[in-house]
Amino acid sequence: MYPLQLSAFTLTTCLGQGVQANREALRAERSGLKPCDFESVALETWIGAVDGVDAVQLPAHLSRFDCRNNRLVQMGLQADGFAEQVKRATQRYGADRVGVFLGTSTAGILQTELAYRRRDPETGALPADFDYGGSHNAFSLAAFAREYLGLEGMAMAISTACSSSAKVYAAAARQIALGTIDAAVVGGVDSLCLTTLYGFASLQLTSTQPCRPYDPSRDGLSIGEGAGFALLERAEGAAPGSVMLLGVGESSDAHHMSAPHPEGLGARMAMAAALKAAGLVAADIDYINLHGTATPANDAAEGLAVAAEFGRRVPCNSTKGATGHTLGAAGAIEAVICAMALIDGRLPGSPGTQQLDPGLDLNYAQHGSDAPLKRALSNSFGFGGSNCSMILGVQA
Amino acid sequence: MSAQPALKMQAWIDGIGFIAPGMPDWAVASAVLRGEQPYVSASSVLPVPTLLPSAERRRASRVIKLSLGLGLEAVAHAGADAGTLATVFSASGADGHNCHALCEQLATDDRQLSPTRFHNSVHNAAAGYWGIATRCMAPCQVVGAFDASLGAGLLDAMAQVACTGESVLLVAYDSEYPQPLFAKRDTPDCAGVALVLSARPGPNAKARIQLHTTRARAATMADPALEQLRQQVPAMRALPFLQRLARGESGSVVLDYLAPQQIELDVTPC
C-alpha cells in the first residue's frame, strides 16, 4: 500500500497562508496565538485565528457553501498553487479518478450557531438563507472542495474529532492501493466557532495563557483554525527529494470519551501500527511531531507512549504553541509541517514550552535546529479515543 | 489510463443488523423485503444498549441506541467478537438533538455548556461509545458524505477488508433533527444497517459482494413506501441491495452514492 507520493502540499494557519509564511514563522519560533477576540466569545483564552478569512468570496455558483469553514477551505486550496496542481492531476487521470478525503470536527457549525440567533420570533424557524448541507454538515467542506476543484469521483469526510485529518491519509491510501482512484486530495479544515471554544472551556481544557506543550506548568490548549492539504499519488516516478507517505497506523483507546488512556496504550498501538505499515522500526524515525495539545492528561499519556516506543533517542516536540490546536485540521497541518521539516532539513521549535516536564523521559526539542531528516512521524489523537500516527519520508 | 487494480474490493457478509421505521430488526426487514409481509411504517424501535454500564445505558441518546443496536445485531448474527473487529461508522450527521441543544444555548447569554453535551457532539461519539463498551482497540473509522454517506462507508469498509484481510464491522445509520433544524434536514426517524464483512468465506457467510464504481442509474424499490424510505434516509440507500440479500438473489445492483459516481455491488449468495 505504501509508499505514496505527496506530489503537492500546502497549509494555512494563524502563522500565515501557504508554506513560505509558515516556514518563516516556524523558523523564527514565532507563535501565532493571541488573546481571544473571536466573534462575541467572552472567554479568557488564546486563539490561533487565520487573518483574512472573512474577506474570502466563494465563486457565485458555489454560494450555497458560504461559511467561515469553506472560506478557509478556499484560502487553503489557493495557497501554493495547490488547486492548479490538482487540476493538472485531473487532466492526467480524469475527473472521476481523483478522490477527495477531508477531515473536520467543526465543519461550518459556526453558521448554524449564528443562524440560531436569527430564528423567527414567531415560529422559531431558521432563516431562509441557512443551508444545512452547504455549511453545517460534516461533508460540506469535501462537497465544496470537490466542486471547486471540478472533481467527479469519490469523496468522503472523516470526522473522528482531532485525529480526523490524519485518518484521511489512510482512507485515501487504501483506495489508491485498490486502484479505484489514481490520486487523492487529502487534508483537513477546522474553523473557530463557539461550540469548540465554549466546549473545551466547559471541560476545563483551555489555558488562560498561550498553550505550553509538555511544560510542567501546562494547563490546557489554545484553539486554532487552519487548513492543510496534500495531493497523494502512487510512488512510481517520484523524484529524489519528494515527500513520501510511508505508513499510517490507527487504533482506538476504548477508554473514555474525552480523556486519553492514562498510559497512552492506544497512542502506542497507533505508532507501532504506523511503523509496521511502513516496514520500519523505531530507530528509523528522526523526528516526532507530537499531538502535544498541552493539556496535562494528553501530554502525559502521549509522553509515556512515545518513551515506551522510542525511548529518548528521537527528537520530538509539539508545534501547537505556534499554530494552536487546529482540532480536526491538526493531522493535515502537522503532516505538512513534517513534510517541510524533511525538505528543509530542519526541526521546528516548540514556542510556549519553557522546560520539559521532568516526569517525561523524552528528547524534547524546545528549539529548532538544522538536522538531516529522513523520516518523521506525526501523532493525532481525538475524542472517543481515536488515534492515528503517520510516517512521512524523503525519497532517496 | 488507470492501473490494474492490485486487489479486488470483495467481501463476504457474515452478519446483518437492521433498524428502520416499521422494521425493528433484520428478521422482520428480510421478511418484508422478500414480500412475505407488508411494509407498515411505524416509529423506529431502538433497543436498550445492554452493552453499556447501567448509568450510561439510562443516559444513552437515540443515536447511540441506534448504532449500538445495529452493530450488536450484526455481530451476533455473524458469531463474531466485537472486541476485536475493526469498525467503520458512517452517518450523515451526529446527534441531532444534542446539536440543537448546544446551538440553542449558544444563542443565549448563558453559554456555559455541559461538558457531556460537548463531548457527545463529535461525529464519532457513537463510535467512541462502541469502543468503550466492547473494549475494542482496533481501528475505528468514522465517515460521512451527506446523502452519500452509505456509499462512503461501504467504500472504506470494503477497502479495509481488501487491504488488511481482516473482518470489518460497517455501521451505516442516520437519525433525525428536532425543529428548527428538521425543516432544513428532514431525515424522518432513526434507521440504519450494519454488516460484518470478511475477506474470506466463513461458516456464517451469507453472500459474497464485489464493489465497483459506476455511472449507471441506481436501483429503486417497487413498493412506494419502501422507495420513500430509501430516499428519505441516507443509510436506506442500501435497500435495493438488502432486498437482493433477503431474497437470496445473485446479480448486480447499483446504489446511489455521489452523483455522477455510483456504487455497484455484485451479489453472490453463499
Automatic annotation (TrEMBL), chain A:
Ketosynthase family 3 (KS3) domain residues are: 1-394
Under Gene3D superfamilies, the record lists: 3.40.47.10
Q: Which GO terms describe its biological process?
A: fatty acid biosynthetic process
Query: Which SUPFAM superfamilies does this one have?
Result: Thiolase-like
Q: Which InterPro entries match?
A: Beta-ketoacyl_synthase (IPR000794), Ketoacyl_synth_C (IPR014031), Ketoacyl_synth_N (IPR014030), PKS_Beta-ketoAc_synthase_dom (IPR020841), Thiolase-like (IPR016039)
Query: What Pfam families does the entry give?
Result: ketoacyl-synt (PF00109), Ketoacyl-synt_C (PF02801)
- UniProt GO molecular function: 3-oxoacyl-[acyl-carrier-protein] synthase activity
Q: Which keywords fit this entry according to its UniProt record?
A: Transferase
Q: Name one GO cellular component term.
A: cytosol
Similarity remark? Belongs to the thiolase-like superfamily. Beta-ketoacyl-ACP synthases family.
List the protein's name: Beta-ketoacyl-[acyl-carrier-protein] synthase II
Q: Organism, per UniProt?
A: Hydrogenophaga crassostreae
From TrEMBL, chain B:
Q: To which species is this protein native?
A: Hydrogenophaga crassostreae
Pfam families the record matches: Ketoacyl-synt_2
Give the protein's recorded name: 3-oxoacyl-ACP synthase
Top-level taxon in the UniProt lineage: Bacteria
- Do you know which InterPro entries this protein is assigned to? Ketoacyl_synth_N, Thiolase-like
Beta-ketoacyl synthase-like N-terminal domain: from which residue to which, for each copy? Answer: 40-248
Parts of the chain that traverse the membrane: none
Which GO terms of the molecular function aspect are on file? acyltransferase activity
